[in-house]
Structure formats: C-alpha cells, structure tokens
Design a protein that fits this description.
Elements: H1 20-38, E1 43-48, E2 60-65, H2 70-83, E3 87-89, E4 96-98, E5 103-108, E6 115-119, E7 122-126, H3 131-140, H4 156-161, E8 165-166, E9 169-170, E10 175-182, E11 186-191, H5 204-207, E12 210-217, H6 224-241, E13 248-251, H7 270-276, E14 283-284, E15 287-289, E16 296-299, H8 305-323, E17 332-334, H9 339-344
Parallel strand pairs: 2-5, 3-5, 4-17
Antiparallel strand pairs: 1-2, 6-7, 7-12, 8-9, 10-11, 10-12, 13-16, 14-15, 15-16
Helix pairs in contact: 1-2
The chain binds flavin-adenine dinucleotide.
Length: 346
C-alpha cells in the first residue's frame, strides 16, 4: 500500500536526469536560461531548504527560484519542462518533510501573491498568498467564511494541493474554481467539481499540474469585528492544543476515514490512536512525538529527516499492532529520502 505522499510535482521525467552528471548539465542549462530572463541573482544553486520548512529539516535543492508573479511562475515552469528538469513546488513548507539529501532538480517557491475581489463575494487568491494573509484580507473586506482558518500555516497553493481542513471543514468548500498550469494546456480555469477534492486530497497530487490561483466564494456583508473575534478564538484554540513553539509540520497522519473500523472508546483521530498506543513523548534522535498533541512530531533540535521517518514508522507500527488501524500520511515527502529509512518506512 502507498502510505507516503512521496512526490512534489514531477513535471520533468526523472529518467531525463538519469545520471547525476547529466542532471547537473541540464540544471546548469536551465540556470543560464532562467538567469537570462529573470537575472542571475534570482537563482540559488545548492540552496538549503531546511530554513524554508516549518520542520527545519532537510538538505539542499539543486536549484531554487522564487517567482513573484504568475507570469514569472509560468515562464519558469515552461522552461524547466522544455529542458526536462524535474520541478518540485514549495509553498510555506508547512506540510513537507524534505529528505536529508535534499531535492534534485528545480524547486519553485512562489512568493508574494495577492487577493482581488472579482465579483461580490468572489475572491481570486494567488497560489503564493499565505492562508493567513488571505484570512486577514477577507476579514478586512467584510467577507465571511475563512475567518476560522486563522493560524493555518502555509499558502493557498499548498492548501489546495492537500485540501487543508479545519474544524470539520475542507478549504475546498469555499473554492469555486482554480487556475492550473500544465505543460499541455498552459493556464486554464477549471471548476472545483473537477478537482477530485476529498479529505486531504486533490487532483494536484497525481496530475503534476501547478496551482496558479484559486477563486474563493465568500459571504458578503460580514462584520469585520465579529469575524476577527472568530479568528482570535481559532488562534487561541490552536495555542492551547498544538506545540506551536517547536518546529513541526503539523499533523503527521490523516485521521481515519469513516469507513475505517475504530477500536471502542477511541475517537476517530490519529492523535488519539498514537496517544493510546503510549507514544506521546517517544524520541528518535532529535524527533519527539509531541507530549501536547499525539499527531505532531516535533524537531527538538538537530532532528534529521531519517529520525522523523523512523519515528513515524514506529507510531504507525504500534497503532497497527495495538488497534489494527493503518495510519496514512498527511505530510508529503519531498526529495531522495534515505533508502534504509524508506525501506523500513511503514
Ligand atoms: C503548526 C501547524 C499547524 C497546522 N494546522 C493545519 C490545519 O489545521 N489544517 C491543515 O489542513 N493543515 C495544517 N497544517 C499543515 C499545513 O499548514 C497545510 O497542509 C498547508 O496547507 C500546507 O501549505 P504549504 O504552502 O506550507 O505547502 P507545502 O508544505 O509547501 O507543500 C505541500 C505540498 O503542496 C505542493 N504545492 C505547494 N504549492 C503548490 C502549487 N502552487 N501547485 C501545486 N502544488 C503545490 C508541494 O509540492 C507539496 O507537495 C499545519 C502545519 C503546522 C506546521
């Protein structure tokens, strides 16, 4: 069974960079190409990715670029596709575990982003915009529907990719349509009904398309003060229940779906299962199952991706052995993870 969400966005074929040297040559060609369009200073070679993730873990990207507009983003994707360089998208880095060996090819990390009200209650938000930025913008414009999402880390791009959830709601419930880039069609707007949205799921996870922007549908006529009070309540709840002072990637596992048989007396929650398996506080290297929240693994300092993978495996095995429930990953694994860790994974 596929337990991990392994890939970013494999736009280029891995086979096209079959050897490290051949890979270096095409990456250098892409670097020159993009430098001539964007400027040399916009490209970072062997760029450390750990500081760009909330886990603060992982090795470098061969090449990193941070587009600041949709036009730049599409040019970059087109040039990488033309040269056959694999592309991995990175948003806020708040739902990923980057391999200790880093990520081969090009990592694209859109920055900035803005929201625009296209029609009453219809807001186009760029992929790069943070969820918190979007929440603040909608509250300020008296638009209701996203205020409870205050405090969700990451960007619109990552939120749509994983169909972020909060308080029993999926972010897709407020999405009317999205603009997607693909090598075949460039940018097209497609309805949310074609996005295969589900719990922790969207078609971006299998299609290799890139989210450029999303059109949200919100309720007009909201009172900003009331909306702000809801946002504050969400933030306070997060502070009480999540270990926000230590690096993590939020929840490691998906909660079991309604069709999964649960042991009596345990809520349908991955954190509760890990807790009842006695693993809160369990440690491997610098990785620890948070004593505050059983579904969070925290980096207490110096954790490697391999430490974290080993601890994930330990939690999964214990929950399987004690409760017969198979926990699936919510985090996405990016890059070339240690072979032994992957073989033992699960
Ligand atoms: C403290 C904490 C609390 C959290 N609470 C929640 C919560 O309440 N609910 C929840 O659902 N999640 C939560 N998370 C997880 C995380 O915040 C969300 O999953 C968020 O939506 C990820 O967005 P991101 O921009 O950080 O994505 P990243 O982690 O950067 O990337 C995630 C995936 O999206 C892909 N991706 C990113 N941008 C694009 C794009 N433009 N096009 C295509 N693919 C793209 C990446 O390749 C990767 O596969 C939490 C995380 C932390 C650290």
């Amino acid at each position: 069974m596929e337990r991990g969400r392994r890939a970013g966005v494999p736009l280029g074929s891995e086979a096209q960079v079959s050897s490290r040297n051949a890979g270096r040559a095409v990456i250098q060609a892409l670097q020159r190409d993009l430098a001539s369009r964007l400027g040399e200073q916009r490209l970072q070679v062997d760029a450390p990715l750990a500081p760009l993730t909330t886990f603060r873990v992982g090795g470098p990207a061969d090449l990193l670029v941070e587009p600041t507009s949709g036009d730049e983003l599409t040019v970059i994707l087109e040039r990488a596709g033309a040269l056959g360089v694999p592309v991995t998208m990175l948003g806020g880095g708040s739902n990923v575990l980057v391999a200790d060996g880093g990520v081969r090819g090009l990592v694209v990390r859109p920055r900035g982003g803005r929201a625009v009200e296209m029609a009453p209650g219809q807001v186009r938000a760029d992929a790069a915009l943070t969820i918190n930025g979007l929440v603040r913008w909608t509250i300020g414009h008296g638009l209701a529907g996203l205020e409870a999402w205050a405090g969700t880390p990451g960007t619109v791009g990552g939120g749509v990719y994983g169909n972020a959830h909060w308080g029993g709601h999926l972010i897709s419930e407020r999405i009317h349509s999205v603009w997607l880039w693909s090598a075949a069609a460039s940018v097209v707007e497609i309805p949310a009904s074609d996005m295969a949205f589900g719990y922790d799921a969207s078609r971006l996870q299998t299609s290799g398309e890139v989210l450029i922007a999303a059109r949200f549908v919100l309720d007009t006529g909201g009172d900003p003060e009331t909306l702000r009070a809801t946002a504050r309540a969400s933030l306070a709840y997060r502070k009480r229940t999540q270990p926000l002072d230590t690096p993590s990637a939020g929840c490691i596992f998906q909660n079991p779906l309604p069709e999964v048989a649960m042991p009596q007396g345990i809520p349908r929650s991955a954190g509760a299962l890990v807790d009842r398996a006695g693993l809160k506080g369990a440690r491997i290297g610098g990785a620890v199952v948070s004593p505050t929240h059983g579904n969070f693994i925290v980096n207490t300092g110096g954790a490697t991706a391999s430490d974290i993978l080993a601890l994930v495996s330990r939690c999964r095995a214990a929950v399987r052995a004690q409760f017969g429930v198979e926990l699936l990953d919510e985090i996405v694994l990016l890059g070339d993870h240690d072979r032994t860790a992957i073989e033992n994974y699960g």
